């Protein structure tokens, strides 16, 4: 089972102005929430660990998880409100977010709410602003450090500077989580926030030396690059008519994790099947395909297994 750790919220898209206000299209989201749903749609057992409000919006979040087949037993229900993110789309479909989440439930997870994990949990995934907002950030870091070496740990920084504008705090938080991680996936946008002058090859090499087994850099329409200790592979993106790019990185993350599991690469380092160059190409093809499909739809609407079946079936061929 994949246990995805982090925020759950609503993305609010402004549909149009009216004489008395705005018409809003509210879509369930939050990067970790999206990854959990993306995995479930690909047929993987997944659960979400986060704080969820007992308000009407929180009830809807929990119900949506259940409808998608995501386990909800690790949700910490509390009276704090639900985070809202207002999304403005640029001409290229790139989103700009304004967050309303002070003291919200997904920022309020405490150590007392950390569960004992069943053996079935083989992978923990951490990401986005849950890495830097306390008490949730400290709580999840404790969980990552506790489980390091016992379960596969995945990290996607997904930097949101309008939630926490102190980029130094982001750098410190990401480095702490990265020291626990088997997989670090970041975007060119993340890299621009953290260190615009950084050499991706050097950064990947450092994380691999510190214990990561996989480092991935997503490059938007240009595709993605994967590094392991023995392989470096670059994969171009797929052409797509972009509606928006909301959730594209989360679709990539879910498909990449699914590919690792189904390829036998997700177990303990001494037991997992090594990733060959051909394996690396397949992993990136699947993940880029899922991201492209997501970009063709409004909001974080992820592909199901059947939509990716031709590529997925081909990925298992020798």
Q: Can you walk through the features of this model?
A:
This protein has 318 residues and is of the alpha/beta class. It is 33% helix and 23% strand. The protein is built from nine helices and 14 strands. It has helices spanning 31-41, 56-68, 136-147, 167-178, 188-194, 200-209, 248-262, 277-295, 309-315, and strands spanning 2-5, 9-18, 21-29, 46-49, 51-53, 76-78, 83-89, 95-100, 123-127, 152-156, 183-187, 214-218, 224-227, 232-235. The strands form three sheets. Strands 4-1-9-10-11-12-13-14 form an eight-stranded mixed β-sheet, with helices on both faces. Helix 1 (31-41) crosses helix 7 and helix 7 (248-262) runs antiparallel to helix 8 (277-295).
Keywords:
4-stranded mixed beta sheet, 33% helix
Number of strand segments:
14
> What's the number of helices?
9
Q: Tell me, what's the shape?
A: globular
Radius of gyration based on Cα positions: 18 Å
Main β-sheet, spatial strand arrangement: 4-1-9-10-11-12-13-14
- SSE-based structural type: alpha/beta
SSE string, helix = H, strand = E? EEEHEEHEEEEHEHEHHEEEHHH
Average residue pLDDT: 90
The percentage helix is: 25-40%
Proportion of β residues?
Answer: 15-25%
- Identify low-pLDDT runs: 314-318
Q: How far apart lie the N and C ends?
A: 27 Å
Q: Which sheet architecture does the biggest sheet show?
A: 8 strands, mixed
